[in-house]
Amino acid sequence: MKILVALKQVPARDSVLKIDSAGRWLDESDLSFEINEPDAYALEAALQLRDQQGGEVVVLCAGPGRAVTSIREALAKGADRALHIEEDALGSYDSLSLGRLLAAAAAAEQPDLILTGLQSDDLGSGQSGVVMAELMGLPHATIIMAVEITGSGLRVKRELEGGWFQHVSMPMPAVLTIQSGINKLRYATLMGIKKAKTKEIRKLSASELGVPSEQGAELLRVYAPQRTKQTQMLTGTAAEQAGQLVEKLRFEVRAI
Amino acid sequence: MSILVITEQTGGRLHPMSLETLAAGQQLGRQLGLPVRTCVFGKSVAPLAGELAAYRLDGVVALEHDLLESYTADAATAALEWLVRESNASYVLLPHTYQVRDFAPRLATRFGRVLLSDVIGWSKDGEGIVFGRQLFQGKLNAAYRAEGGPVFVSLQAGAFRADTLEPGGAPVETLAPPMEGVSIRQQPEPPFRESARAVDLSAADLIVAVGRGIKEEGNIPLAQELADVLGAELAASRPICDNGWLPMERQVGSSGQTVSPKVYLAVGISGAIQHQVVMKGSKCVVAINKDANAPIFEIADYGIVGDLFEVLPALTDAVKKAKG
Ligand SMILES: Cc1cc2nc3c(=O)[nH]c(=O)nc-3n(C[C@H](O)[C@H](O)[C@H](O)COP(=O)(O)OP(=O)(O)OC[C@H]3O[C@@H](n4cnc5c(N)ncnc54)[C@H](O)[C@@H]3O)c2cc1C
Ligand SMILES: Nc1ncnc2c1ncn2[C@@H]1O[C@H](COP(=O)(O)O)[C@@H](O)[C@H]1O
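A: This is the predicted complex of the input protein with flavin-adenine dinucleotide.
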């Protein structure tokens, strides 16, 4: 079975986010980057399926040169090879043209299964996997919490709202968007890290794939959210803050 | 030119976000001077179309077909593709529910259009509508302009208020989308719950909720102690339950429980929309976070910017003292 995992590199969680001088994106100079959280779970799901079923796991990543560190990490964890669409100006791709870019690279591989994360931490569109499925004419299911290969295809567990779930079956090839927490992530071993250095990372470019950038929806500017609620900030040492809060909860909220 | 609002129903009941989206549709209709129609889709949805017809709208479509009985992405996409073409809509608004996440990107792609997902609002300028959405789980916002049409937009939970809906009336039309030749590849099974919920957080008066700021499982007792002295229930954000540090039944959020206690203490929780949306109805929200820009502060009544490893023990002590 050939499984393709779409993996995005995003600013590390808990980064201090500074808007760039043009007000169009982030100032990336002091940022460190990591694999988008649900994508790490998608990769783990792919590795587990491959370990059961045989076959290979191919990582697909569109991003600038720095994304190679995340690709290497995925290879060190056990992915077999990678496709890197190296593109500095991905910001000029809207969610549809980005989907086209990923779909073009994926289609050439003819995978049996495509796994993506359910949403990226930075843009948070929550769309790329579904857009790829439509462009490639494949069935899909989203917010997946379990994947089972059956005789005729796949049976997956979809998360619904409010603690409900549902099983859905579908033929392969198919696209699934994976939810965080679906499995336990593995760490890369020293051996894995060593091996990763010899694994293939094929570079692709947008022009080679024949997908121009489009701005069906153009990001005009990035700005800090305005606070609408008047939050009373409690200051001082931890003990002072705690003391003030208890006063408020006793005498204003009347909850203790 | 018109606005089409696509609502969501399951088992004959409208999803509450449907009405929020309808309110948004009315608002956009007033701003742009466009007629607003809505649709509800399923197998037999006439009663729901009747409910929707009680609002000031230009039309309600009951989009009915046997193949729409249980939701599948393929059937929903095909039926709605037909309706969007038929109604010649220039704006298509949807609630950003889990179901909409599942089919709306596919629907928009079928029109060669971008879906602006999880939109929190818009403004009108000389050139048209500028849509706002969140980046980085609410830490930043971004403004987008959509070119061409139809413009597909899904709206974040709570971004518009259902109680601003204008009552009125609307003609109802029942339509059957042509579904011949549509192959429906997903075979859904009935929804289920993982286990009976032993903990009913919705009944709790006080909740201490802990997030990823707690760092490791071994630190959970710090929050448990505070909960104990307060007589509060302990709850958590999703990653804590995903890691198995607390059972799933203690998860607060769109995939977990909805709560509205007297006091909700969010400790080391950033306040992503999937968490906020179900707890912001709490009478008093207290946020304890080391990041003064964490989105949770936007809905907090009281805020403590600080290290939870110092604040939690201090708070436990202070409560003990206060209770004598
Ligand atoms: C479809 C879908 C469904 C989801 N459902 C849910 C759901 O039901 N419930 C839910 O909670 N989430 C849900 N999520 C996930 C949600 O988007 C967030 O990822 C999640 O809520 C983040 O949890 P957190 O705030 O604990 O972690 P983080 O976002 O990592 O935040 C940790 C916070 O702790 C603070 N912190 C760190 N160290 C300290 C310290 N020493 N002292 C004080 N503060 C500190 C940080 O500043 C940060 O703000 C869902 C996501 C999706 C896409
Ligand atoms: N630049 C990218 N390269 C590879 N995969 C991506 C990229 N952008 C998005 N994806 C995949 O699509 C998922 C959803 O992203 P998004 O639609 O941006 O929320 C992510 O979790 C990734 O799996």
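The first helix of chain B runs from residue 16 to 32. Residues 44 and 64 of chain B are 6 Å apart (CA to CA).
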